[in-house]
Design a protein that fits this description.
Layout (H helix, E strand, L loop, with lengths): L2 H8 L4 E4 L1 H10 L4 E6 L7 H15 L3 E6 L1 H6 L5 H21 L6 E5 L6 H11 L4 H7 L13 H15 L4 E5 L3 H10 L9 E5 L26 H10 L11 H13 L4 E3 L2 E3 L2 H9 L5 H16 L2
Parallel strand pairs: 2-3, 2-5, 3-4, 5-6
Antiparallel strand pairs: 1-6, 7-8
Length: 312
């Protein structure tokens, strides 16, 4: 594993690394480093979740042990249903992720864990110890972007970030991955896990939260504006046909964001848009701003490239 090659691959996506120096150290010095991302099973996961997971897929390709935590107890704490229903979604999430892993050449290289497999009595004793070193305000602020509205003032919204922090320690994670809304939780892990005798993790965050198909809000099941991982060809085409896509507008254009944060980072070589072959995302943005392609051409490419990833 060569640190320079790993970092170059990761940097194809717009990410933050806390910190690059420590990541280099892990790559060079830890024999079998571990990376992870937590998925909260609740209904079908979408390409926003997948985009945040791309660093885990890439690190797995470079030789990291990669864990996908199917966080069933977290979902229970976040009011996402009862445990039996949550675990059905978790099993479905695993199937969809593994299908995509195979397409990315890492089939069988991801390790899937349910929270209920290790979040036991010993774990919760450790969580009580952790609760004595993380203050109330820090835990509350870390949940601002994460918790469901109905849970935001409930006690479980304080338990949730403590569990996320402790997961990193208990799973022996060297590199924790998530979207940028996980930053505060990961900083809590960086600052506090060493106080309980765990190693200090590196954190990698996908900087961009994907816009939903409406172009108004982030992609979320709550807003009904998602591209899900279980789309059919017909449903994918129908959703992208309705996706907001104003000619020349690079600020509010969900499809550009999907290319920037998901499709270009995992694609080797140029991508065709109409009659153009484009090798890097900035070229796509520049062409769109100059109105060198139509919304129909952009949407046609999006259907093709997302179908290749999710369906075909």
């Amino acid at each position: 594993m060569i640190a320079q090659e790993v970092l170059a691959d990761l940097r194809k996506q717009d990410i933050e690394i806390l910190t690059e120096e420590r990541l280099n150290k892990i790559i060079n010095e830890v024999p079998s480093p571990v990376t992870y991302i937590g998925l909260e099973p609740s209904n079908v996961i979408h390409i926003g979740n997948l985009s945040a997971s791309i660093p885990v897929f890439k690190l797995a390709r470079h030789g990291f042990r990669a864990i996908i935590l199917l966080a069933d107890l977290h979902a229970l704490a976040n009011d996402k249903g009862e445990i039996s229903e949550i675990q059905k979604f978790a099993s479905s999430d695993q199937e969809m992720y593994e299908r995509i892993a195979r397409k990315m050449g890492i089939g069988g290289k991801l390790e899937y864990k349910f929270g209920t497999e290790f979040e036991d009595q010993k774990y919760f004793i450790q969580m009580l110890r952790l609760s004595r070193v993380i203050n109330f305000t820090e835990a509350e602020k870390s949940m601002d972007e994460i918790s469901k509205l109905s849970v935001s003032r409930m006690t479980s919204s304080l338990i949730y970030p403590l569990m996320q922090v402790l997961d990193i320690g208990e799973l022996g994670v060297n590199v924790a991955v998530g979207a940028i809304d996980q930053r505060k939780v990961h900083v809590l892990a960086i600052e506090n896990l060493k106080k309980l005798g765990y190693s200090t993790p590196v954190a990698i965050h996908a900087k961009i939260i994907l816009q939903g198909t409406d172009g108004k809000r982030k992609m979320s099941k709550s807003f009904g504006n998602t591209i899900n991982l279980d789309e059919t060809q017909d449903s994918l085409e129908a959703k992208i046909k309705k996706t907001f896509c104003s000619p020349g507008d690079v600020e509010i254009n969900p499809i550009l964001g999907w290319y920037k944060s998901l499709l270009f980072p995992i694609h080797d070589g140029a991508i065709k848009f109409g009659q153009k072959e484009i090798a890097k995302y900035p070229e796509l943005e520049a062409a769109w701003e100059k109105k060198e392609m139509t919304p129909q051409e952009l949407k046609h490419s999006a259907v093709r490239d997302l179908a290749d990833l999710l369906i075909n």
